[in-house]
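Box S1 | Example of a co-folding query
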Amino acid sequence: MKLQDLIEQVRDTFNTAIESCHNVKDIQDVQIHYLGRKAGVVTNLFKELGVSAVEDRPSLGQQINDLKEYVTKSLVIREQIITEKLEKKTFVDLSLPGNPEFIGRLHPLTLIQNEIISVFEGMGFEVATGPDIETDYYNFEALNMPKDHPARDLQDTFYLEDGNLLRTHTSPVQIRVMEKTEPPIRIISPGRVYRKDTPDATHSPVFHQLEGLYVDEGVTLAELKGALLAFAQALFGQEMKIRFRSGFFPFTEPSVEYDFSCIICDGKGCSTCKDTGWVEISGAGMVDPAVFEFVGYDHEKYTGYAWGMGVERIAMMKYRINDIRLFYENDIRFLEQFS
Ligand SMILES: [Zn+2]
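Box S1 (continued) | Returned holo structure for zinc ion
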């Protein structure tokens, strides 16, 4: 190979070698390989000069010198790049202002649900949960609503293609727990429920319920009233009152609707409570003996009470919110008001 071509080849291989240098040690190796005094690739080119034609020597010599200078400079530049990168990795400027991180917070419904749970846990209730997709049996039948029961017509249910459904209440959890557990039972079951409601200020097709169940020997309706009053006072203040009105549910007998005194007007009457002084909360009652039969409890021996409540409803009262849809719009300006 002619010396001229050899010079070009060395330049090419050097360019490749320098690109693959990633630390100072690599640089030193390449430097020795190309510029080493005894056997460096560039050094050897000078030796070749002695066997080339005399008239070509000045030009070739100049080219080899240029190459040597190029190699030397490239090695210095590469080393600078590498050490700068290393410095960047380890250098911390403590005087720079920090980057504020956005800290998330609990959703108001989670906050209120936690608060409700904490009150009932204080009364000895334990949290029990169940699936959102339920069978017809757990959602209706075992709750004393057989196929032809008129109460089923009241429920606008999301049925799935396989015959299962999205639970319309969290009561199926009560059945599931009672099937597996002997009394005494004291549970609350919070969770999502689904109904074919058109969304408006007070309705949503998905909302949250929390139900309670207490089964033991000698449980009475008076104890239920006491528990709900204690809850109302824990959440809204000692001046809260509660009242029962007669109601009807297939799974309780007797059944009641319960109201809390209006927290806006302290029971004096206002537009929120339609001048009654009372705000309707939900339903409750003594567990129907027929339900006990489904789960194999002796209804001669045991009695129990159960109640439901809408978490959104309680949250709307507590936070004075007049539109349920605000909970689901994920508007950060709304959500960040709660902590
Ligand atoms: Zn009122």
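The domain at 108-335 is CATH 3.30.930.10 (BirA Bifunctional Protein; domain 2). The beta strands are 126-127, 133-134, 165-166, 185-194, 206-216, 242-249, 252-261, 278-287, 303-310.
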